[in-house]
Every structure is written in structure tokens, then in C-alpha cells.
């Protein structure tokens, strides 16, 4: 599935591939003629033919942990305007609904990078998609994702379907319905957002009112198969959406994979970056994760986990110390042998 050779043939060349070829032509590559004969046989390393790291990070934020996520950049404009408006109008943020810890009570949320809260994560992912649509640069799209050409329901698509931006609640309800019906996890929602931004970057397209449902559906379909051990089949999604056909689902999945250039790998560092950026997005938009008082049972569990991590760290430190001591002894023996000789 992740190989470079596939039985599926793309109807047209990916614009991302063409752009990469042009960029590679601009990068000078040293040939064997440029190397003097006394250097021997010249074999170029694969890293010498790669694009510069800064350029790759800028082009593919879903592949590199140090590149900023697209959704967080697109949301900053609205966040700054909201803060400026509140400051100019002397508007208070409203009642303080967030709970704060005190001397007698400690509030913590149950969302972690390894086990995120499902409802809050879906809300944040829906909000990220909302900002993608609202602050899009243009309306570049592909026919396979156009809802009018490939409708998800038998109901007539409104004439203004490509003009009116969907609200955050509508996007949230659409994603929540798929996740609750297919029993998907919160981690799958984060991987869905990674695939969505990777698609927009690789295919050089925008998510807009005419294609957002099919793009989100394709990202969820792929993320559920890659992430979950017991993947949901395409026919199962047809039972959820009722009017969509299996052939349409298969065709959309094939195009999605080709546009991703079959790159379905999500490094742990990229996953963690998206998780914490979603939390930052939630804080900027007053979407608080559910807080609960720290109970005795929860405190004991956290303490046990902390002790386990400390024991593992001590074991690693001891093994590293033993390797260091053995290396020092080896150097000492060699030095002694050199002196004796």
C-alpha cells in the first residue's frame, strides 16, 4: 500500500510531482565527470539529491515536526481580530467558565497525547477545517471531490453550495456522525487532519464549500484503515451515508491515495505536534477540555505511572553508565598495551 509501485494508474499526472521535478532540476547535482579520477568510483548518496530541509518543511508541514500546521496559521488572523475587537470595545470575555485549581482541589482533564478526549478532539478538528474553509486562498478543487458531480445524498444540491461557507456546528455534526457510527477513536481524528493537510499540500488544492464533505470523508476513510486494527470497510460507510455507492467510495479512496503519492506514514513527532496545536486552537477559541477534580484513585494511578517511568529511566541510565565504563576500561587496556610495547 505504501510502495512506490501500484496497480492503480492515475488518469493524469499529479501537479505535485511535476512541481517537484522542476525544483529538482533547479538543484545542482554533481556528476561523475565533476569528480577527479584519483578519487575513485563516485557513488552519489540519496540525501544529496533531496530538496533542502527548509524548503521541504515549508512545502510539507504534515511530514515535518518543525513546520507549523496550516490550520493554526489560518486561525491566527481571526484570533488577532477578535482580541483587538475586545480590546477596542472594552469587552470582557464573559463569565469565567474555566475551572482553576486551588489549595484544596486540583482540576485536570482526561485528555493526553496518547489518549485524547474524543468529543473535544472532534470539536477541535472541525474548527480547524472551518478555518481552512473560511480563510482559504482560492477555490482550487478536483472533480472527484466535487459534491455536485458526486453527491453524498439523493437530495438536490443547492445552487449556492459552492458559495456559502459551512458553519463550525455543521462540520462537527458531519464528523461526529461518522465517528460515532463507525466507532472510531480520537487518535483517528488527529490522523484525519494530518491526511487532509497533506492532501491540500501535495495536490495544491483548497478545501472549500463544494468539496469539504468528500475530502473529510476520504481522509476519515483512509485514517481509519491505517490507524485502527479493525478497519471499517467501505461498504460500512455506505450504510452510514445510505445513498453513496461502494464504487464511488473506492474511486475516491484511490484518487486520495494517488494524490498523497501513497505517503500514509505519520511520524510520532508529527502526530504530537498536531495534538498540541489543536489544544492551542482550543485555548484561542475558548473550547475548554473537560476538567475533573483529582480523586484519590486518579492520583494513585498517576503516581504509579510516574514511578514506572522513573524506574525505566533509571534502568536506561544504568545501562548507559555500564557501556561508558566498559568503553573507558577498553581504552585503558589499549593504552596500557601501547605503553608496554
SSE blueprint and pairings:
Layout: H1 15-26, H2 53-59, H3 70-88, E1 107-109, H4 118-134, H5 168-182, H6 186-202, H7 212-227, H8 234-241, H9 246-259, H10 268-284, E2 291-293, H11 296-340
Antiparallel strand pairs: 1-2
**Average pLDDT for all residues:** 77
* CA-CA gap between termini: 60 Å
Low-pLDDT segments? 1-24, 29-42, 46-55
Considering DSSP H and I runs of 4 or more, what fraction of the residues is helical? 40-55%
Give the percentage of residues in beta strands. under 5%
The secondary-structure element order is HHHEHHHHHHHEH
The rounded Rg comes to 26 Å
Sheet with most strands: strand arrangement? 1-2
Q: What general outline do the C-alpha atoms trace?
A: globular
Written overview of the protein:
The protein is mainly alpha-helical and 341 residues long. Helix content is 55%, strand content 2%. The protein is built from eleven helices and two strands. The protein has a two-stranded antiparallel ribbon. The longest helix has 45 residues. The protein is globular. The N terminus is likely disordered.
Quick structural overview:
By secondary structure, this protein is mainly α. 55% of the residues lie in helices and 2% in strands.
Could you name the key traits of this structure?
mainly alpha, two-stranded antiparallel sheet, 11 helices, globular, disordered N terminus
